[in-house]
Design brief:
The complex is a heterotrimer of chains A (254), B (215) and C (232). Chain A has 254 residues and is α/β, with parallel strands linked by helices. Chain A has helices at 2-6, 52-59, 81-90, 106-118, 122-135, 151-163, 181-196, 208-214, 232-237, 242-252; strands at residues 12-23, 26-37, 41-45, 67-72, 75-76, 91-94, 169-173, 200-204, 217-222, 225-231. In chain A, 41% of the residues lie in helices and 25% in strands. In chain A, strands 6-7-8-3-9-10 form a 6-stranded mixed β-sheet, sandwiched between helices. Chain A has a 4-stranded antiparallel β-sheet with strand order 2-1-4-5. The relative contact order of chain B is 0.15. Classes of the chains: A alpha/beta (254), B mainly alpha (215), C mainly alpha (232).
């Protein structure tokens, strides 16, 4: 019940209120409440199996929450297809495995949703897509198929694809986990730029430096629960909970 | 051999027409069947599943008899042997092709559906712009295999009297009693007609494996 | 007369027909399966003189319609002075088709065993026979059985072609019933139901014993309102 009262902060752009996620009978996320303010960058960290990705996917209903509510700008989401579509238009998602459409060029990937979801006229959508590709530094790759791009480039195209919907919030599901460090770095640089421009972001990540340097707040999760939430500086340098301490020690001594 | 061929040649057009027409019917009906079978609501899934299972559980020759003698010889409907064969074989192979389509749809990675959903693409656009284009190449090799099977099953149409290669061979044999020669040539004719489909399947397979390997 | 009572009248003749159908299926398998095994071995033989004839037999057996093969045997063999009953002709033709199809299934089964397993067996000093018996066959059988059962169902349905050479099997009984009563719909629908019943029972058995590789699906929850994709 304490969670409920915390979640009603009026200026939150995105609120999770008592969210649970279950696969069949098996609950993997237990009662998570969290507010994300406009312009805030929140990092979700924790050991694998902690439920970070499940929680992130619940935010845009790729896994519908089994209990609890998701609120965007104070309005509850879910129930109808229409309300879901509205949510997904406002929430961009970047996947660990990029999920670019392999039969479309970079530009076509980025244009697809503006044209077919938002109904933007093709020419206008092309301009919008080119702008976003330039934004992630890949204007020269517009006519290239994803298979001809490096992993880092593919992930940046995927970011441009999500940005082309002009979302209010961006979700990142371990965006660098399937990249080697060098290619991951260029993706992280792009995300840093985005954060600097004031984009609201929720990022599941194993990159502790990114969490410490870029995130405003860090959420540490273990066993499907939020163990500790604090400003990035405090949580990373001075964790209160022994579980958090153990995790950070283990990661740093690797 | 040449004389035999000249007689059987009269049936080639009919065999090819039955095969192609049935294949078009099957390809058109098979896709909605496959999509229905992937629906969430069992109300949509059930009729499709039933249709596919029943179509495949009864021998083709029984279907052709049913269509020709039962459906096609009523007071309201009169079907030619060609029409009956195309309807019967078309329906049976719609069931087979729906399996091929479904395998193709299944071959598209989960992430592609998720990305389409995360972009709020409408269901129809997800199929049309994202999933089906990726399904196409995967579906060509099994489709070609089914086309060959259909070509062979088209011989059954001769039993209801369609004047195809097999029908001509039976007629000829009743005159010249040269069953060995006539049916050997007929068999080779079917094998020869199947070669283009076999080449198509192999070609598509090559393109596909190159794509998967090279990416 | 209601459909039910009509069907009750037909049923004894149909069951006689069904027993001929099942007999034909069984005998064709008895002839075809050993030939199929032999052909599959010949297909992988190093000597071209053995391999090429086997390839030819398999290609012809799979490429020509079973009905044409049946006519070839039925109308052709008497030319060579071999006159057999239509049941024997159907057995020869369907046995040949069975051999050609199952040869491919058996070969795929043996090929499915990773080279590493055979190499490991050789490295352990197993004899060629023991390698086959202990390593190759137990694994191959698991791969081979589902498509083999699938083929049996196809063969069972394929025996209906023997109608064309007047073997008194299920379809023949239905047709002769129809030509007496002119009730094509009721006679043929009942035949279809009998065929479907056995086929579907076999399919159900196959799926219960060897479920499709759907295990990957069970650990991925798919939200309602969305199509069900599998992971690859």
């Amino acid at each position: 019940m304490q969670g409920r009262s915390m979640s009603t902060t009026s200026n939150a752009l995105l609120s999770l209120d008592g969210v649970c996620v279950a696969y069949r009978q098996h609950e993997v996320v237990h009662d998570v409440s969290l507010d994300v303010a406009a312009g805030e960058v929140v990092a979700l960290i924790g050991p694998s199996g902690a439920g970070k990705s499940s929680l992130l996917r619940a935010i845009n209903f790729l896994e519908p929450p089994s209990k609890g509510r998701i609120l965007l700008e104070g309005r509850e989401v879910g129930g109808t297809r229409r309300s879901l579509d509205a949510l997904r238009r406002d929430v961009g998602m970047v996947f660990q495995s990029f999920n670019l459409f392999p039969h479309l060029t970079a530009l076509e990937n980025v244009m697809l949703a503006p044209v077919h979801t938002l109904g933007v006229p093709t020419e206008q959508a092309r301009d919008r897509a080119m702008k976003q590709l330039a934004h992630v530094g890949l204007a020269d790759h517009a006519d290239v198929k994803p298979s001809k791009c490096s992993g880092g480039q593919q992930q940046r195209i995927a970011i441009a694809r999500a940005l082309a919907m002009e979302p209010k919030v961006m979700l990142f599901d371990e965006p660098t986990s399937s990249l080697d460090p060098e290619l991951g770095a260029e993706v992280l640089a792009t995300m840093r730029t985005l954060a600097g421009e004031g984009m609201t972001m929720v990022v599941v990540t194993h990159e502790m430096h990114f969490a410490e340097d870029v995130a405003d707040r860090v959420v540490f999760m273990a066993d499907g629960r939020v163990v500790e939430v604090n400003s990035a500086g405090k949580l990373m340098r001075d964790p209160k909970h022994p579980r958090t301490q153990r995790f950070l020690d283990a990661v740093r001594n690797r | 051999m040449v004389e035999i061929l000249s007689v059987l040649a009269d049936g080639i057009a009919q065999t090819v027409q039955i095969t192609l027409a049935s294949f078009v019917v099957a390809a058109v009906l098979g896709l909605p069947l496959a999509v229905m079978r992937m629906a969430d609501s069992w109300l949509i899934r059930l009729p499709a599943v039933l249709a596919v299972e029943i179509l495949r559980a009864v021998p083709p020759i029984v279907w052709l008899f049913l269509v020709y003698f039962s459906l096609g010889s009523s007071d309201h409907v009169q079907l030619s042997t060609f029409q009956a064969a195309v309807i019967g074989l078309g329906l049976i192979y719609a069931a087979h092709l729906s399996e091929a389509y479904r395998a193709g749809l299944d071959a598209v990675p989960t992430g592609q559906w998720e990305a389409a959903r995360a972009l709020a693409l409408p269901r129809y656009q997800s199929y049309r712009r994202v999933i089906l284009p990726q399904t196409l190449m995967v579906v060509v090799p099994p489709m070609a295999t089914f086309a060959i099977a259909l070509l062979k099953d088209s011989a059954i149409a001769s039993v209801i009297g369609a004047t195809d290669i097999t029908f001509q061979a039976v007629q000829l044999t009743q005159q010249d009693l040269n069953g060995l020669g006539n049916f050997a040539v007929a068999g080779l004719l079917y094998i020869a007609l199947g070669l283009p489909f076999a080449a198509l399947a192999r070609g598509a397979d090559r393109v596909l494996s190159r794509r998967l390997a090279g990416a | 007369m209601s459909v039910w009572s009509e069907w009750q009248d037909y049923l004894p003749a149909y069951l006689d027909g069904l027993s001929v159908t099942l007999k034909l299926t069984g005998v064709s398998l008895l002839v075809g399966l050993p030939l199929g095994v032999a052909l599959s071995l010949a297909l992988t033989a190093p000597a071209k003189a053995i391999r090429w004839p086997a390839v030819l037999v398999v290609e012809v057996g799979r490429g020509a319609p079973a009905l044409v093969v049946l006519y070839f045997v039925y109308y052709g063999l008497p030319q060579l002075g071999l006159t057999w009953t239509s049941f024997v002709c159907a057995t020869i033709a369907l046995g040949f088709t069975t051999a050609a199809y199952t040869a491919d299934i058996f070969r795929a089964g043996v090929n499915s065993i990773p080279v590493g397993h055979r190499e490991a067996a050789q490295a352990l000093g197993l004899s060629h026979w023991k390698e086959l018996r202990l390593i190759v066959l137990p694994q191959a059988i698991r791969v081979v059985i589902p498509p083999l059962v699938g083929f049996c169902i196809l063969l069972y349905q394929g025996t209906s072609l023997a109608y064309a050479v007047s073997v008194p099997e299920l379809l023949s009984r239905a047709y002769s019933q129809a030509s007496i009563t002119y009730q094509f719909t009721t006679t043929l629908v009942l035949a279809g139901l009998v065929y479907a019943f056995v086929s579907l029972a076999a399919v159900a058995l196959l799926r219960a014993r060897w479920p499709r590789r759907s295990a990957a699906r069970t650990d991925v929850a798919v939200p309602a309102g969305e199509p069900v994709p599998t992971a690859r």
